[in-house]
Amino acid sequence: MNVKKIIKKLQTFQIFPHYWPAVFLLALACSMSAIANQFQGRLLERGTKNPIEQANIYLLPFKLKTVSDKKGVFQFENIPEISPDLEGELKLVVNMTNYLRLEKNLRADFFSSGVSDNSDFVFYLERESYNGSFETTILGQKSKKDASAKVLTQKEFLTVPGANGDPVKAVQNFPGVNRVNGLSSQVVIQGSAPEDTTYAIEGHKVPIIFHFGGLSSVVMPESVESVDYLSAGFGPEFSRVVGGIISLKTKTPDPGPRDSRGFYFIDNLKSGIQWEGRTPQGDGFLIAGRYSYVGLFLRQILKDQSDFNLTVAPEFADLTVLYSRKLNETDELKLTNVASRDIMEFLLKQPANSDPSVRGTFTNETSFVRFIPQWKRSWGDGSSLSLSAGLGQDKILIDIGQRYFRLNSYVGTLRGEWEKSFSSTWKSFVGVDNEYGRYQVALKLPNFRNEGGVRAPTSSNDTKEDAASGMTVNAGVYWKNELKNSEDSSWIWIPSLRADRLRQTHESLLSPRLTAKWLIDESFKWRYSIGQYYQRPSEQQGDSQFGNPQIKSGRARHWFAGFEKDFRGNSLMGWSLSSGYFRRDFDNLVVSSSAMMDREGVLVPENYNNTGKGLAHGVEFLLKGDFNPISGWLSYTLSRSTRQDPSHSEYVYPYDQTHNINLVVSYDFPRDYKLSGRYRFVTGNPLTPITGATFDADNDVYVPQRGDFYSQRLSAFQQLDLRLDKKFIADLDLYTVYIDIQNVLNSKNTESVNYSYDYSQRQDITGLPLLASFGFKGEF
User: Fold this and answer.
1) Which of 93, 570, 664, 753 is the most buried (most CB within 10 A)?
2) What total of structural domains would you count in the chain?
3) Same domain flag for 181 and 77
4) What is the DSSP code string of 391-447?
């Protein structure tokens, strides 16, 4: 109560004017008394400093109650007179779900100081658990514009066991994702080739999504809102690829109820920092960067390993800058900037046993920059329009002594989509997906012979040198519809048609696709998908020197049938199961050729043609369970992938893996300890046996003789990874100490084989031994 309120209340009485001086003094005295008998403060979450709203706050022994507002501010008024004998009994008590009980003793002089500034008294309420504290809160259902997509939100991939908080490593635990060799940065999907997978950020293609070694994705995990994994039967939004897509969507910068927040971390493999804030105008921004020095530690680990004839020195750096602005009620603007650089160096300690010409330093460098502006307008009638562009540069360098491959390209991509709901039973999408680029390439490489995955000595092959430049133009449009038989129908039909024009191969391609969904109830769903897909050849395959400028795009037909069942009912705890059968029929594939062809009247090597065929099919299972404090999932894939061409009958594809099992589990212990782990078992990759060798006197090397293609296998892969996190909570900060151990059992997994100079002896090359990283993370 203040002076004005007291005077206004007294004005309701009929008092003569000559009494007003006395009335004023009386009102002032009452006002001072009222101010002295109130208490105001602010309630924040301990560690994160986020305001806590709608908290019930009690003042004892008076049994007074108040509620905090959205800024965490609360106030008690009309507090009875506080006598000195209440000292020690005055308490502030807060009891709130998912938080520890707060009971704070107050001094009597707090109430006699005329408190009016809430910043003088701040109280911190501690959560029961802080595991996964730095995350984006995403309301509502997951955004799944593509029915085939498996979507992981930030809250999920930051806590998935065995992924170390990385979105792409979390995807690797999905069924259908093949395991690749230890230091590979590729993702292989459902028995396809590594080059059959497209990587994208905000829907725009980038050359890699994983840093070398597969240790982390090219964007800071806390900068990512979600990751989409699209496998067999994906929709028309993407094309020019027959395998699948891994697409990252960055978050819209928002520090929440605070003006800014961030974190930093440092461990023995890498370090980084992220800062997220809000401008005075209310625009959001985020800046994040990392640098890895893992090569320093791998050198030390591998230098005494007799199984390795090389030292490895990978390093990477990445930078992400985000900006978002709400232009008006209908328009939103977002700017995404991503830069990444990877260097992998191999230093041979001695010449390769099978090829004396191969020695010295090997360097592989990949870098890219992308600037992606995005604009979206939403109308109230269920329609929207979005436009985005991807502008940047890609650089790839492979240096093998006197041999090299250098590619420098400037790229531009354009995406747009108009969405319109015509009725409750019909929604339509019309979009464009275009690629533009100008490239310069210089290379000096031997004409590798790699039949059956066995490479002949490079010195036994002719070396070719070439330099070229050109332009890439690939235009695509698509039309997708979501149809229901009636408003309450349990069937949803999603027919779509995509058209592409490829300048490199001079092709105009049509890709019809269809998805049908049957929603038996809210917890049980079936899906069936079928579609046509194309993938253009690489620049090298279409090169006049190293390839064949007359080759065309490879084709694949996708089939998928599966279901999802949620057994949790109305509970947050319980089981969920998804399973499905996938099939990919490949034809017109680009394969190597040793034939000669007539090109403009000249007989030249064909190098490549479109005579390849193949089949990849299998069954997937994913069982997920959440029973706080324990959670996890079990994924299993049973599959087979084969290929054939005119010179070889059907053979097992080198990326075929019959069994692929991933078991991931995490347990939240009291006092903010968290233990997580992953166990993987994967059938060994196929390999072609060496049956003998012939001596090439001209080049002083032995040339291998190959047995049946991919008729043998490496030993099965198995690995156990563990991670332990411990959080320390202060009033104003959060700190995490962690240790992550890969290959806890120090399994000797064979990644490849090496042969003696005459191919008479074979040596298995094993993957990385036990590798531990330990570090510290602070949130501010």
Assistant:
1) 664
2) 3
3) no
4) EEEEEEEEEETTEEEEEEEEEEEEEEEEEEEEETTEEEEEEEEEEEEEEEEEEEEE-
- What global pTM score does this model have? 0.85
Task: Tokens for 769, please give them.
Answer: 């031994």
Which amino acid is it at 574?
G
Q: Label residues 288-309 b or e (16+ Cβ within 10 Å = b).
A: bbbebebbeebeebbeeeeebb
Q: Calculate the average pLDDT of the chain.
A: 85
Residue 277 lies in a domain: yes
Please, what is the end-to-end C-alpha distance for the chain in angstroms?
A: 38
Yes or no: say if 642 and 685 are a contact pair by the CB < 8 Å rule: no
CATH assignment at residue 384:
2.40.170.20
133 found inside a domain: no
Give the Cα separation of 149 and 617 in Å (integer): 18
Tokens 């009452």 sit at which residue?
30
SS3 761: coil
Residue 370 sits in the same domain as residue 425: yes
In this structure, the answer to whether residues 349 and 218 fall within a common structural domain is no
Q: Alpha-carbon torsion 133, 136, 141, 146, what sign?
A: negative
Same-domain status, 103 and 79: yes
Q: Containing domain of residue 220, as a range? A: 150-247
Residues 234 and 93 both lie in one domain: no
Which CA distances in Å does 626 have to 629, 630, 678? 8, 6, 16
Q: What is the rounded average pLDDT of the residues 295-313?
A: 57
Query: Which residue is listed with tokens 């101010």?
Result: 35
Predicted confidence band of residue 458 (pLDDT cuts 50, 70, 90): low
Give domain status of residue 119, yes or no: yes
Describe the crossing of helices 20-36 and 3-10 by its angle, rounded to 10 degrees: 140
| 311, pLDDT greater than 70 | no
Residue 506's Cβ-count burial label (10 Å; 0-12, 13-18, 19+) is exposed
Do 166 and 293 sit in the same domain of this protein? no
User: If you count them, how many residues does the chain have?
Assistant: 780
d(CA 685, CA 452): 13
Do 223 and 258 share a domain, yes or no? Answer: no
Which CATH number goes with the domain that contains 196?
A: 2.170.130.10
Do residues 220 and 314 share a domain?
no
- Which SS3 state, helix, strand or coil, does residue 222 take? helix
- Domain annotation covers residue 590: yes
Counting Cα atoms < 13 Å in the Cβ hemisphere of 276 gives 26
